[in-house]
Amino acid sequence: METMAHPYQYLTPDLVLDAVEACGYPVNGRLFPLNSYENRVYQVGIEDRQPLIAKFYRPGRWSQAQLEEEHGFVAELEAAEIPAVGALPMTDGSYLANYGGFTLALYPQRGGQAPDITMPDTLFRIGQWLGRIHQVGARSDFQHRPTIDPVRIIEQGHRYVLQAGFIPHDLREAYQSLIPDLLDAIRACQDRAGTVTLQRLHGDCHLGNILNREERLLFVDFDDARQGPAIQDIWLMLSGDSEEQRGQLGELIDGYEQFNEFNPAECHLIEPLRTMRLINQAAWLAWRWDDPTFPMHFPWFGQDRFWADHILMLREQLANLQQPPVRPPGP
What we know:
Blueprint: H1 13-22, E1 27-34, E2 40-46, E3 49-56, H2 64-79, E4 97-99, E5 102-108, H3 122-137, H4 150-163, H5 169-193, E6 199-201, E7 210-213, E8 216-219, E9 226-228, H6 242-256, H7 270-287, H8 293-297, H9 304-321
Antiparallel strand pairs: 1-2, 2-3, 3-5, 4-5, 6-9, 7-8
Helix pairs in contact: 3-6, 4-5, 4-7, 5-9, 7-9
């Protein structure tokens, strides 16, 4: 396929249906797009069967080897009877197909809602499953997928938004002057954490990527699977003030340690990882701005108000980085 600013301009409904049919499934013509920005995801009707979910990966984002590692990891989790929703095998036994210049995977349709963490034992149960996921993740390392590195990701992301001209001129100095202070504070947190184990992770384990279905938890969307510290799959479920987060973290870790040991020094990495996510999300919007979906769904990006609020959040993060970390309650 030729190089293009918008990689999905040729992903027509007919191509989607033809691709699924080429994988061996007789489509009935029903096609419903699902919410997804980085990739394109569709519910596809199949003759005399439940619909399938077809995921078309953004060209150029992951290599074939990186995609295969994602699916291999999820297959390991499923083999260990962990409730991770993996792709359906193709006729050749692989989990990926290539059609019309796109790489795709097919999934069974799974419904459910985000778990209610206000209910007793929900976070404990999530922690138990994360402990088991990380047991499997520690068996081997990713060879092709990247490793989470807050300093590198922040340096790359902030340079891009500056060079691309997304930050209003009168806010550039405030933004630029914050980055070195944030990086220094992050390095200090990393020093306090010391050497931590890096392993295969879900990578984006927020509550929207966990489904509660008939009192069973299902872990979905391993698209951001990476090598990193265990706390990356835990901190995204923390919310509220520091005392609330402390209680939530305690529930998660209590469940986690039913199956896996947790290194409490990793708590020093929570705020560095949160800072990385804030800066990387802004950079992600900038990187994808040529995709018409992004200006349509994020019209506020690039406006003065967005960047003023973003800089304020980063200033708050600088203060958070300099405070003692959130820790689970002691014995």
